[in-house]
Predict the structure.
Amino acid sequence: MNRTTLSLIAGVTALAAVTGFAAVSSPDATATDGTAEAAAHLPVERTSLVCPSPSSSDLAETTYTSFTPVTKGTEKEGGAELRAAAEQKQDGSKPGDDSEDDEKDGKDSESGKPVLEPEDPGKPVTGETAGGESPALLGTAEGRFAPGWTVQETTTVTAGTGRGMHGVTCTAPDTEFWFPGASTDAARTDYVHLTNPDDSAAVVDIELYGKDGALETTVGEGITVQPHSAEPVLLSTLTDEKQTDVTAHVVVRSGRVGAAVQALDDELGGDWLPASTDPSGSLVLPGVPKDATAVRLVAFTPGDADVDLKVRLASPSGLITPAGHDTLHVRGGMTAAVDLEDITRGEAGSLVLTAADDSVPVVAAVRVLRGEGDDQESAFIPAARPVGTRATSVDNTAKGTTLSVTAPEGTAKIKVTASAGTEGGTEASKTYTIKSGTTQDVEAPVPAGAKGTYALTVEPQTDTPVYASRTLTTTENDVPFFTVQPLPDDRGTVSVPQSNEDLSILQN
C-alpha cells in the first residue's frame, strides 16, 4: 500500500473519531479527472438517529416518517431501520427475553421486528402508533440509506395537557445540548428525554439556569441512562424553584445520548423544544409563522460577561428592527426573556440576533403562539445551524406545509425538490432566489400525482449561508395545531482532508 493511500485512510479515520456518528465510504472508484476534488466530500457510510418517546396520552396518535435522498457516489447495498429502545431489566436481560413479562408490561414482544424499515432511497415510508405508552426508537442506516437519512416523529394530542401537534426531527446522539425556553413553572410539565443508543451506560448531568443564575438542583447530576434505553427527566423534580423561563444544559460525562425537551402547558398546548445550535455571537431563528399571535424570546450566555443582543426581524422586504425591542440585555450565566408580541404582523419572518460583543457566545429559542383565547397552541423554534450542503424535511402535505427560507447575509439561490409520496407520485423541483436580509415562505413544489406525505430537500446553489424551517399545520376543534422544525444540514456528506503529497513521487 502506498503512502498516499495511507494518508487518506488516516484522514478518514481521524474524522470518524471526531464526529463519533458517521462513517464515510471510499471515493467513487470510477472517478478519474478531478479525483482530489471528489475525495474532499464523501457520502457517509453509516449513521444513527434516536427518536424520543412520544406523548403517553391515550388520546395521542404518532406517525414516524423516514426518508433518504438519493445521493451520488453511494454504495449499491445498505439498509435502515428503527427499533424500540430496550430498557434493561434488573437482571440485565432485555424485553423480549421473557415474553410473559413483556405481555404484562403491555409491550409488543415480536422478536426483532423493526418499527420502521425503508425500502429504497428517494421514497419516504411511514408508520403509526396508537395512544398510550410508546418507547423511544433507535435507528441505524448503512450504505446507500445513510447519506441524509431523516426521520420525523409527529404526534397529535386532541385534548388534555399539551394538546396539539408535537413534532420533532429525530437526531444524532451527542455529548452536549442547550435548551433555552424550558420551564419549571407550575403551568408547565417539561421533560428532558435522554436516549442512549449504545452498548454501554451513559452518565448525564442536567444544569438549570434561571433569571438570577444557576438553580439549586437536587438530583440533576450523575443521571445514568442504561444501554439501548431512554430516561425521561421531569425538570420540576430537579429543583424547588418555579420559574417561567429556564435554560437547561445537558452534559454527558461518559457515552453519548440523544436529547430533546417535551414542553407541555396546561392551557397553551405543547410541542418539542429542540436543542439550540452551539453558543455563538450571531444566531438565526428561522421561520416564525406569519400568523403568530405572540412570540417570546429566551436567551442565555454561559459565560460570566454580560451582553446586549441586537434583535432584528428578517421580513420579506428586508431586515427591520422591531419597535421597542431593538436589544435584549443578557447577564452572564442568567436566562433573559422578552415578549415580542405579534412581531411578524402577517408576514413571513425570522429572528436575527447579533451580540454587541461577538466574543460573548449566546444560545436562544422562541416560543410561538397561534390562535386566540382558549384556542391557542404553542411551538418552539431554537437558534439553528445553516442548511449547509443539503437539508431534508419529511411528513409534508400540499395544504398543511409551509417552507420558510432566510438569507440574512446576502442574496442566495436554492433548489427545492419534492420526493415521491409515501403512496405514490413523481418528484418535482423548483429553484428560488432569496434576497439578502429577507425571509420568504416559498411555494414548495408538490410531487405530480402525490399520494400520502412526501419529503422536501433544500439545496443551496450559492455560497451564501441559508437558514430554513418547515411548519406543519392542521385544525382540531377550532384550535390551530402546528409544529416547526428547523432544517440544518442533513449530514449526507463529510469533508475529508486532502493530501498535498506529490503522487508522481509516492506511487509504487
